[in-house]
């Protein structure tokens, strides 16, 4: 049975120095579903997402209260090593950012870092991962050419492949289609729907249609508070809160 509170966010608040930007967020994110974080610019979506793999830790002066648990275990447990956490939680960013390497070497990057260099294993991972990222057919004849030779949408799918090559449990996506055209966007949305068979996905998006097309649950944040969190259909069709209704109907952005 997939776990309903695979990522359990428990009364979580977060500050950059004196600026408190998340206020007592409570949210259970289920396993192998797509959960979208929506809300106006600056409401704290990326901050919340980046806390799910402790990416904000390196910023000076940050503080948190409350807890985030992955599969029952606190991210802040002193025994949790951030490096092993990042293996469990992959991340894809707004601007596709392949490394200046070949397509093949981008996919196997995290395996090489972990000292896994056996050619036959790497070949298998490359094919399986590129198939999962819906890119194999387009690149199988040019695996050893530069990743920069791909289109923007292909480069983003390659970044998704790189993020999932080491089989994380969770995939965090921060506006993954923001730099893509509508056709490439739809391909990534198809891919997100396929990938939830294997991964728990959390996506930040400004695009309401995208949230309604590809997420199972939607959380609406406003000024660092979680205003509403429910099944996506419910949030879009019969929101409980006036502020959610106003936002999704475009009365403010
Ligand atoms: N590194 C940082 N240092 C200080 N303040 C930050 C930092 N990153 C974000 N903030 C502030 O935290 C608040 C929340 O920002 P965040 O990027 O999480 O919001 P967002 O909802 O993802 O916004 P957007 O949709 O514009 O990307 C904003 O007021 C922002 O200015």
UniProtKB/TrEMBL annotation:
<dbReference type="InterPro" id="IPR027417">
    <property type="entry name" value="P-loop_NTPase"/>
</dbReference>
<keyword id="KW-0592">Phosphate transport</keyword>
<keyword id="KW-0813">Transport</keyword>
<dbReference type="GO" id="GO:0035435">
    <property type="term" value="P:phosphate ion transmembrane transport"/>
</dbReference>
<dbReference type="InterPro" id="IPR003439">
    <property type="entry name" value="ABC_transporter-like_ATP-bd"/>
</dbReference>
<dbReference type="InterPro" id="IPR003593">
    <property type="entry name" value="AAA+_ATPase"/>
</dbReference>
<dbReference type="GO" id="GO:0016887">
    <property type="term" value="F:ATP hydrolysis activity"/>
</dbReference>
<feature type="domain" description="ABC transporter">
    <location>
        <begin position="7"/>
        <end position="248"/>
    </location>
</feature>
<dbReference type="Pfam" id="PF00005">
    <property type="entry name" value="ABC_tran"/>
</dbReference>
<dbReference type="GO" id="GO:0005524">
    <property type="term" value="F:ATP binding"/>
</dbReference>
<keyword id="KW-0547">Nucleotide-binding</keyword>
<dbReference type="InterPro" id="IPR005670">
    <property type="entry name" value="PstB-like"/>
</dbReference>
<keyword id="KW-0067">ATP-binding</keyword>
<dbReference type="GO" id="GO:0016020">
    <property type="term" value="C:membrane"/>
</dbReference>
<dbReference type="InterPro" id="IPR017871">
    <property type="entry name" value="ABC_transporter-like_CS"/>
</dbReference>
<dbReference type="GO" id="GO:0005315">
    <property type="term" value="F:phosphate transmembrane transporter activity"/>
</dbReference>
<protein>
    <submittedName>
        <fullName>Phosphate ABC transporter ATP-binding protein</fullName>
    </submittedName>
</protein>
């Amino acid at each position: 049975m997939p776990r309903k509170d695979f990522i359990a966010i428990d009364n979580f608040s977060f500050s950059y120095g004196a600026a408190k930007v998340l206020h007592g967020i409570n949210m259970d994110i289920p396993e192998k579903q797509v959960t979208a974080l929506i809300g106006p610019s600056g409401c704290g979506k990326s901050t919340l997402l980046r806390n799910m793999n402790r990416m904000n830790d390196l910023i000076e002066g940050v503080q948190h209260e409350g807890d985030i648990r992955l599969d029952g275990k606190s991210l802040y447990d002193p025994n949790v090593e951030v490096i092993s956490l990042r293996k469990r939680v992959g991340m894809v960013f707004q601007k596709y950012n392949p490394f200046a390497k070949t397509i093949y070497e981008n996919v196997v990057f995290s395996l090489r870092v972990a000292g896994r260099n056996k050619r036959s294993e790497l070949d298998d991972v490359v094919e399986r991962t590129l198939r999962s990222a819906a890119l194999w057919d387009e690149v199988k004849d040019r695996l050893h050419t530069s990743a920069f030779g791909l289109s923007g949408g292909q480069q983003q799918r390659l970044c998704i492949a790189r993020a999932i090559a080491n089989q994380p449990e969770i995939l965090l996506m921060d506006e993954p289609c923001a730099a893509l055209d509508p056709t490439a966007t739809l391909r990534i949305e198809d891919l997100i729907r396929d990938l939830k068979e294997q991964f728990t996905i959390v996506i930040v998006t400004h695009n309401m249609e995208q949230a309604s097309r590809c997420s199972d649950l939607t959380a609406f944040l406003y000024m660092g508070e979680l205003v509403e969190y429910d099944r996506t259909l419910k949030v879009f069709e019969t929101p409980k809160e006036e502020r959610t209704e106003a936002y999704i109907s475009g009365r403010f952005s």
